[in-house]
Amino acid sequence: MKRHLFVLLIVSQALWAQFDNVGTSVANFLKIGVGARGSGMGGAFSAQVDDASSMYWNPAGLGQISQPEIQINSTDWIFDVKHQFFSAAVPTSAFGVLGVSVSYLSMGDMLETTHYDPDGTGRKISASDLAIGLGMGKKISDRFSFGLHAKYIKETISFSSGSAIAVDIGTQYRTSFQGLIIGMSLSNFGSKMRLFGTDQLIDVDIDEDLDANPDAQGRLDTKDWPLPLVFRYGLSVSPIGENSLIKTDLVTGIINFEYIDPRDYNPFFVLGGEFEIINLIIVRSGVRYTYYKYDDSLDESHSFDALTKELGYVPRFSWGIGLNSKNFPFIPYALTVDYSSSNMGVLGFVSRVSLTLGI
Questions:
Q1: Whether the predicted model's global pTM rises above the 0.90 cut
Q2: pLDDT bracket for residue 48 (50, 70, 90)
Q3: CA–CA dist 41, 251 (Å, integer)
Q4: C-alpha–C-alpha distance, residues 53 and 356, integer Å
Q5: Long-range contact pairs involving 308-314 (C-beta distance under 8 Å, separation at least 24)
Q6: Cα–Cα distance between 232 and 261 in angstroms, integer?
Q7: What is the dihedral of CA 38, 39, 41, 45, to 10 degrees?
Q8: Is residue 126 over pLDDT 50?
Q9: How far apart are CA 310 and CA 347, in angstroms?
């Protein structure tokens, strides 16, 4: 098993060497955390994840699912943007656990503005993002799990759209020390995307010195942009529980640590925890330390020099709560309802609601 982990680490570092952490990327909706469970812990979830949302956090977590499962996630993102994520997973005897996922982000209608009409053309346009994926997770042994998630991605704005394909790959290794789990994942490794459509068509005067020549139709040249490649390295430990260091059958406690390295932003780290009380109520909390160059507590009354003051790593807190049906025998299915709220600084708070159903 150590060899498997070592090989994955070397391969992931080699892939990372292809990119500089300086540019922009496309399809950034792929970085929006899904599910109230993982988001309630700030996103520290790649080592612990063991439900259908694994196809986002770490597809190796699919291998831990023992019964068919459906999960529906809804996020009230910033600026009235809505994000939904649907996932389903089914265990099989030959291929491990197979899954399907659908991620959809909608922005509603907005007024169109152009270079020639900066105040608006009077026409409304819409924008949306879509990703459809197929996943597979399998236990290689009682300690080591491997997972893969392939997806088709499409972005649309007005009459222009672009598409790409990508894969997510991950591993989980369960040790014998206090429930320690080591998780690693690589997300959104795939092709580049270019927007293409009738919005790029323009009328061009080939020779402005000639008065009688008609305009010709030209096309604006758009560029290819990479997907937001993300590495996750996570640790999960269970210090409280029936078979843990602090022995009790009333509370199960899990602590997670995660180092996240996006290709288009500074690396950051997250500390989160989940505590299940009497197999009924689940409380979660997390803190994300993200690097900020600007003090978002300052306003326009401050000087430009103060506004651009570097702060370093700033904490952003998340919390969540969940209820499950373990103590309700009259409910024939394994049902869990989760809610989370995440602090986005000057952008306010983001709320998520999740429903997980085990059949």
A1: no
A2: very high
A3: 17
A4: 10
A5: 313/268, 313/289, 314/289, 314/290, 314/345
A6: 6
A7: 30
A8: yes
A9: 19
Q: How far apart are CA 282 and CA 251, in angstroms?
A: 10
Q: In Å, what is the CA distance from 13 to each residue of 6, 8, 10, 18? A: 11, 9, 5, 9
pLDDT, tens only, 333-343: 899 999 999 99
What distance in Å separates the CA atoms of residue 130 and residue 155, rounded to the nearest whole number? 6
The answer to whether residues 123 and 117 touch, using CB atoms and an 8 Å cutoff, is no
CATH code for residues 2-358 = 2.40.160
Distance (Å, whole) CA 108 – CA 123: 13
Q: What are phi and psi of 134, to 5 degrees?
A: -125, 130
Decide the pairing of beta strands 97-111 and 124-139.
Answer: antiparallel
- pLDDT > 60? residue 328: yes
Q: How is residue 126 written in tokens?
A: 């819409």
What is the four-CA torsion angle of 22, 27, 30, 36, rounded to 10 degrees? 110
Q: What pLDDT sits at residue 326?
A: 84
**Secondary structure element (H or E) that encloses residue 86, with its range:** strand 82-91
Where exactly are the structural domains of the chain?
2-358
User: Which of the 8 DSSP states describes residue 6?
Assistant: H
What is the pLDDT at residue 204?
Answer: 82
Strands 230-241 and 246-247: parallel
